[in-house]
């Protein structure tokens, strides 16, 4: 699919073949999770379309930050936003040095466990673990408190090495 991304006719043909195959052999397939896949696709498409328009205010802000401030800013922001969005927006900044790019990605990766929205595996983990909680839900505060120690260890490792 990646190889045909710039050839929409081939892409759609293969996609329709995939949908037809899963429909024809439905009893041998797990149900397709189309709604969630479309939501992720629309999120990423919106990020690509609207992300480039954010450069006018991101460029001066990120360029003026020291590497350590960029690390801790990315770590804090990834608790309330998707870390893929954060690193993508950071990639739009012209002239970022190697250390700044490292600190941006390291901060986003370190803080990825602070919230369910920051990382794709987190919602899957919540789905698997929620049956172990009293009301089958994971509270945001409990998740944050539980993730603080591992986040501190990850942040320390990224800063030391």
Can you lay out the helices and strands and say which pair or pack?
Layout: H1 8-24, H2 34-51, H3 55-63, H4 67-77, H5 83-91, H6 98-110, H7 121-129, H8 140-160
Helix pairs in contact: 4-6, 5-6, 6-8
Note the quaternary state here.
Answer: single chain
Task: Report the strand count.
Answer: 0
- Please tell me what the overall shape is: flat
> Structural class given helices, strands, pairing?
mainly alpha
* Helix content percent band: 55-70%
What amount of the residues lies in strands?
under 5%
Task: Fill in the keyword field for this structure.
161 residues, 66% helix, flat, mainly alpha
Describe the structure.
The chain is mainly α and 161 residues long. It is 66% helix and 0% strand. The protein has a domain at 53-160. The chain contains eight helices and no strands. The longest helix has 21 residues, at 140-160. The two termini are 37 Å apart. The mean pLDDT is 86.
């Amino acid at each position: 699919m990646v190889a045909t991304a710039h050839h929409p006719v081939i892409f759609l043909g293969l996609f329709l073949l995939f949908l037809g195959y899963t429909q024809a052999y439905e009893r041998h397939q797990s149900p397709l999770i189309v709604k969630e896949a479309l939501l992720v696709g629309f999120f990423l498409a919106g990020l690509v379309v609207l992300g480039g328009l954010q450069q006018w205010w991101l460029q001066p802000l990120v360029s003026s930050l020291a590497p350590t401030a960029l690390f801790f800013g990315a770590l804090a922001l990834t608790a309330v936003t998707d870390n893929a969005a954060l690193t993508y927006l950071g990639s739009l900044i012209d002239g970022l040095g190697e250390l700044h790019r490292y600190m941006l990605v390291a901060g986003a990766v370190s803080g990825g466990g602070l919230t369910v929205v920051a990382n794709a595996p987190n919602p899957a983990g919540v789905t698997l673990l929620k049956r172990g909680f009293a009301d089958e839900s994971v509270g945001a505060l409990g998740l944050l408190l539980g993730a603080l120690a591992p986040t501190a260890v990850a942040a320390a490792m990224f800063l030391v090495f």
